[in-house]
Design goal:
Blueprint lengths: L5 H27 L5 E4 L12 E7 L24 H16 L5 E8 L10 H8 L4 E9 L10 E8 L7 E4 L16 E9 L2 E9 L8 H19 L3 E7 L34 E3 L7 E2 L12 E2 L2 E5 L3 E8 L12 E7 L1
Parallel strand pairs: 2-3, 8-9
Antiparallel strand pairs: 1-4, 2-15, 3-5, 4-5, 6-7, 7-8, 9-13, 10-13, 11-12, 14-15
Helix pairs in contact: 2-3
Length: 344
């Protein structure tokens, strides 16, 4: 038998361990994500009824880790994590105070996270839930690791906070990106679908967060088709339909000043013409941006900003008002908007 050199054997063993670890971790994440993990927490007091008009808040909170002090490596920046735990605590406090000072019946939120790697151990979801104890909560993970220690775990996804949530919303899977994040994490894109009765009228509220890094927006376009097929089915059944969240598509043309290079705008795509049926409307507040680029920490007039967060409403819904809450991106890389709606 030929002797195997000791040094070569060491490198071979290390390679085997790394390969085994890769598939071991992939197995954890994949097994966990065959079903979308959810949390449903009805408020302690009985659910109250919501009366017309319906106030809907839309906000991607960037797991409280993408405040003004942060950039992000996937967007061309240098940081994978927020600068420190203090930044996340500061951002969470600002997010919660903004929510507490806002009048809304339903909040459609994206990039909410439990304590873990991205939040440096800060319990973002739990902190908001505690501060909004007069609202019921439904949370569903698009990324959720299994058996990882908390400091390196990932639990991240969509959340609905509502004054009226007598039963948990439905989770419906939509098209996914073919690549895995960091090579082993499979993001499970889905929507949350909640039904309400407001003044004896049926409503369907859909919370979305579409893909951001798919080439040529191909996945986003397929996701859009699936979402509007579901939305139209509700409309055909006579319901008032509201689809809201982070579309990761420019909802209208904007010209806010910026100095970002074209390279930082690689993910920007326009909402496709003809994507919605006649009578449906895209609605947003054009007075200010809802998102900024993350290739650098935020400096007003430098980062590119535009509008990708808002609603699409069915023909039997009227928009009474849309108000952007301008926070100058202090706490997140997105800004919230509150919409006042009524059924025709």
């Amino acid at each position: 038998m030929t002797n195997f050199p000791t040094k070569a054997f060491g490198w071979f063993l290390l390679l085997c361990i790394l390969v085994a670890s890769y598939f071991f971790m992939a197995g954890f994440v994949t097994v966990k994500n065959r079903e979308v993990p959810t949390q449903y927490k009805p408020k302690a007091s009985p659910a109250s009824s919501i009366s017309s008009p319906l106030n809907v808040l839309v906000w991607n909170i960037g797991y409280a880790g993408l405040g003004e002090e942060s950039d992000f490596v996937a967007d061309g920046g240098e940081m994978l994590l927020p600068p420190d735990r203090h930044a996340i605590v500061k951002n969470l406090d600002g997010i919660l105070k903004t929510l507490q000072n806002s009048e809304f019946d339903v909040a459609l939120m994206q990039e909410v996270a439990e304590a873990g790697f991205l939040t440096r151990g800060v319990e973002v979801l739990g902190g908001i839930a505690e501060g909004l104890s007069d609202h019921s909560l439904f949370f569903s993970s698009d990324i959720s690791t299994k058996w990882f220690p908390q400091r390196i775990s990932l639990k991240h996804g969509l959340a609905i906070f509502s004054k009226d949530m007598k039963t948990p919303p439905q989770v419906i899977r939509i098209d996914e990106e073919p690549e895995r994040i960091m090579g082993f994490i499979k993001r499970k894109y889905h929507i949350q679908e909640m039904e309400l009765v407001i003044d004896n009228q049926d409503w369907a509220i859909i919370n979305i967060h579409l893909s951001a890094f798919d080439k040529s927006a191909s996945v986003r376009t397929k996701q859009l088709e699936t979402v509007f097929k579901i939305a139209n089915e509700h409309y055909q059944a006579g319901k008032a339909v509201v689809v809201g969240g982070d579309w990761n598509m420019r909802l209208g043309q904007t010209d806010f000043p910026y100095t970002s290079s074209e390279e930082a705008l690689f993910w920007i795509h326009d909402f496709p013409q003809g994507a919605i049926n006649d009578g449906w409307q895209k609605v947003f507040d054009p007075s200010g941006p809802t998102v900024r680029t993350n290739e650098r920490p935020f400096n007003k007039g430098e980062n590119y900003t535009t509008i990708i967060d808002g609603l699409v409403i069915s023909p039997n819904v009227s928009l009474l008002d849309a108000q952007l809450i301008n926070l100058d991106f202090k706490y997140t890389d997105h800004q919230p908007t509150i919409f006042k709606l009524e059924k025709n």
